[in-house]
Known about the structure:
The chain is 38% helix and 18% strand. The chain is α/β, with parallel strands linked by helices. Strands 4-10-9-8-7-5-6 form a 7-stranded mixed sheet, sandwiched between helices. Strands 11, 12, 13, 15 and 16 form a 5-stranded antiparallel sheet that branches.
Amino acid sequence: MDDIRQISGKHTYGTWRRQKGFNPLHVVSAEGSHFTDSSGKKYLDLSSQLICSNLGHGNRAVIDAIKAQAEELAFVAPGFTTTARAELTKELLQVLPKGLSKFFFTTSGTEANEAAIKIARMYTGKHKIISRYASYHGSTSGSVSLTGDFRRWPAEPHSTVPGSVFAPDANCYRCPLKKSPDDCGIACVDYTEYMLEREGNVAAMIIEPIVGTNGVLVPPRGYLTKLREMTRKHGVLLIADEVMTAWGRTGSWFAVDHEGVVPDILTTAKGITGAYIPLGLTATTDAIAQHFEDNFFAHGHTYEAHPLTLGPAVAAIREYKRLGLNERSRDLGEKLGRKLAAIKEKHPSVGDVRGRGLFWAVDLVKDRANKTPFNTQREKLDGKPLVIDQVTGKMMAAGVSCLGWISHLVIAPPLIITEAELDTGLAALDDALALADAAI
């Protein structure tokens, strides 16, 4: 079994890290909210791997759909159609925000965003796209150009595409415009409008309705509505990157549903199949679709609408419905929020807890008054020791896997998790936070 780790560490790349010391844990099985390593140790999956295993592990309906699709038709070129393509389209038309009616299928969220970028530029004839600094939209040239965090930095300038502009974040804990919640007025949207009025040649604005990896930043009520009105006023498309926030994660099919906002383009991936098969989606309005009736659609790839990815997505969506996971995410998420608030009161190293549904962040600070994080993006990029890694390491030793990112943890368990399992994970978090408290 050690050979498997050694071979993987020596001959395969570990993502977003220096390669020295890469020695990945050998996972051999998974079921429900747990996965098991080669020694037989079980781990509670408190972050759904990379916030994607929404249905948990071992869902029989999705596994059977993969088998059935492989038996029926494993692959055909995207110029043909399949039963799975039509069936998934019908399911999507039921759950997507009304008005999004034309679909392009990819094999990742990154590719879905690449398609959205190209579609927006082809449709509008403009080039610039506004993103935000606390954002991640993918790792390919177009999507990493719109990524606001440090993962863009090493790609510049040779692997980035011109035309990206960055706007203020909707970060109510650390407002970039130094506003207090009492006098905010959603000033970040007002500043974005100021940018639109002066920037020119803007094709679209892309946002994560709730920022994912970069802190689970929940915007204030009215933010999405105001942004939608503002982009429409200036003739700018609104792209909602729901790669992480869709499929029940925030207590609704899509995070934009919380304010009834319909973007011009919506992208998603991860939970669309519960991560059992790689699938991404770029959905557009009929107005955009009509443009390409007589204009060349200059995009495509071999695995677009791959039937082996589409069949399992049909099963996954039906499982979300059968298990009532949107409602479960809302109900259990309210309990999770209260439990995290109680943990915050116990630990001076916890500056903030925030989230919606089963999507929460625990923000660690070395100075509550000044909201100073323990570590920075630069230190992460430079490979410096991080306090967050000590915390997640202790949790892992206790059998709880939790994603830590620079100075916060992402609590985003499978939507099927039981309250008892959730309590087990939070107990491990409570215990591990003593390390952060000691580092103050």
